[in-house]
Design brief:
CATH class of the largest domain: Mainly Alpha
Number of domains: 2
CATH architecture of the largest domain: Orthogonal Bundle
Order of helices and strands: EEEHHHHHH
CATH superfamily of the largest domain: Winged helix-like DNA-binding domain superfamily/Winged helix DNA-binding domain
Number of strands: 3
Strand order of the largest sheet: 1-2-3
Radius of gyration: 18 Å
Number of helices: 6
Length: 161
């Protein structure tokens, strides 16, 4: 056990809980880190961090594009060990989960980003990075938003925020 101290592992948890007559389900990916003083520590769920970042930028939580974007960022984080194609791998994976097609996922994400970039939290969007904005459209690409937010969520998780 001492050999694993200080290492981080990702764990996918699926729990079924009974509350009175109701069954509740808890599912998510958690990063578990070991340290000398506290043993195992479950880090903040990546999905919560992703939602927090998206809401802070002004993404409406009920929009399909936001839901697909959240799932896409989560997928990107899960596949962090290798290079993935947004168009050929990420969009189809999100589409399969939500019983739609990849073109619909791409379009909804793009439309939501366009709306947020014109109506969102301008200060936070400016902090997000003006160097990422595409000259023709005046907004970042879907892939840039996914990559940047995934990196930001991972960094905040490592720093323990």
């Amino acid at each position: 056990m001492d050999e694993s101290r200080g290492k981080s592992i990702n764990v996918n948890l699926k729990l079924e809980l009974q509350y009175g007559e109701r069954n509740c389900f808890l599912e998510g990916n958690f990063q578990i880190r070991t340290d000398k003083e506290n043993g195992f520590i479950i880090r903040e769920d990546y999905r919560q961090s992703i939602r927090k970042e998206l809401q802070g930028l002004g993404f409406p939580s009920s929009a399909c594009g936001t839901i697909y974007l959240e799932e896409g960022i989560f997928y990107f984080i899960q596949k962090q060990k290798r290079q993935i194609s947004i168009t050929k791998e990420l969009y189809p994976a999100v589409a399969e989960k939500y019983s739609t097609n990849a073109a619909n996922v791409e379009r909804n994400i793009r439309t939501t980003i366009e709306k947020v970039w014109t109506r969102g939290n301008l200060q936070r969007l400016d902090d997000f990075g003006s160097g990422m904005i595409e000259y023709k459209t005046g907004r970042p690409t879907n892939g840039t938003v996914i990559h940047t937010l995934a990196r930001k969520v991972q960094e905040s998780s490592v720093q323990g925020r």
